[in-house]
Amino acid sequence: MTKPGEYYQRDRMWHPPAYDKDYKTSVTRSPQYSLISLQNSISEITGPTFGHNDVDPLDNDLIKNYAQPGQSPIGERIIVHGRVLDENGRPVPNTLVEVWQANAGGRYRHKKDTYLAPIDPNFGGCGRTITDENGYYFFRTVKPGAYPWRNWVNDWRPAHIHLSIFGHAFAQRLITQMYFEGDPLIATCPIVNTIRDKAAIGQLIAALDKNATIPLDSIAYKFDIVLRGRRSTMFENRLEGN
Amino acid sequence: MTQSLDYLKETASQTAGPYVHIGLAPGAAGFDIYRQELGWDIAGPNARGERIRVEGIVIDGTGSPVKDVLLEAWQANADGIYAHPEGGGEVEEGFRGWGRVITDFATGEWAFDTVKPGRTRGRNVGTQAPHINLWIVARGINIGLNTRLYFEDEAEANAADPVLNLIEWERRRATLIAKRTERDGQTVYRFDIRLQGEEETVFFDI
Question: Among partner residues B11, B148, B201, which is closest to A226 by beta-carbon distance?
Answer without folding.
Answer: B11
